Every structure is written in C-alpha cells, then in structure tokens.
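Deliverable D4.2, example record:
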Amino acid sequence: MGRLRTWLPKLSHPIRIGEHNQTAFSLGLMIDWARGTGDRDAQGLFERRARELYLKDRAWMLEGIAAGLPPGDERLPALRAAAASHRDSGLAAVTGEHYEGGHWLGSFATYLATGRGLGR
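Output generated by the structure prediction step:
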C-alpha cells in the first residue's frame, strides 16, 4: 500500500495499453478493495486519481456523472446523449475477434451494462 500511495500521485497520465498493468482496471479493483476494507484514505486517493485520469473517457463514466446529478439538472440530456453515443460505439467493438475487444472491452462493458460503481 505504501508504494501505491507514493507512486499514484506521481502518475502523469493513464497507462492505456491492453495488458493487465493498465491503470483503469487496476484503479477499479483498488477502489473496490478500499471500500471493502474501509480504508477511506486509500479510497479517496484511488477515486481522485481515477477522476483525474479518466473523467473524460467512456460511456460508463458519463453515466456515473449523470447519476450524481439531481433529476432536473439541465446538463442531463447532453450527458445522457454523449453516454449513449459512447456506449453504442464501445459495445460494437466488444467482439471475440481481437484480444482487446474480447477481453478488455468486455470487462468494461460489464461495468457499463450493470452500472457497477455508479451508485444506482
């Protein structure tokens, strides 16, 4: 845990390669661990870095933002439209043809389809 607390704040950009050491999936697992163990300091660090590195990515995060807004918020239609566009494009790429589409995108498609972590 000490190494993560030292390294993660220094990370200048997300690691996006299609291997197990990419940061999006790892941060998701770390957040789950911190929530499960009740380590609020670690949870705060992991969630902050996830937002800083990935807030502008993918349908799952857009839906997460929309889920956190009040029902009448004027930004909801635009967020939901952007999320739908990203969702359609992303899910179309989830195939068994290539490792990235069948493995990594499938992992995040599961988050998208289940709403995992969105507070629903």
